[in-house]
Design a protein that fits this description.
It is a single chain. By secondary structure, this protein is mostly helical. The protein is built from 11 helices and no strands. Helix 5 packs antiparallel against helix 6.
Length: 183
Amino acid sequence: MTRNEALTLLREHLTNENLVRHCLATEVIMAALAERLGKDIEKWRVAGLVHDLDFEETKDTPDQHGLKTVAVLEEKGLDPETLQAVRSHNEALGVPRESDFDHALACAETITGLIVATALVQPDKKLASVRPESVIKRMKKKDFARSVNRDAIRECEMLDIPLPDFAALSVQAMSGIAGELGL
């Protein structure tokens, strides 16, 4: 699946613009991770875009989130590794994360929320004002962006990427599409 096909699929399944932005942010972080780790950038990019296709449909049944997405992606012929990463990104499914791809999708999609929340508390509410150190500092504050799973973000260390480096990579990646993210 190409990026354009993934983007079309995303737009077919999600109407909430904030969810679309979350997927776009996850996409660019996944691409940056793939580049850093010497992985297939297009494949990782696509996974970031499509990982939450069923979120609007399953928001009230978190134990189903990801299953409908996987069914759609199977029909589109996506490879088993991508399907596994999509399944395992939702801890409620109980699918263990085993590969770099699995850990990357989990930490990438999770840090997006922390970075957006950090941007929104800046005076100008812009990504350009967010420093990786601010993200790390706010990550330590449990009452800040409470719903963000800090343990999932720390899975970057399973990729041999220290948390400060991951925060920097993620902020930089998202800053490249700040306009599309409305930040």
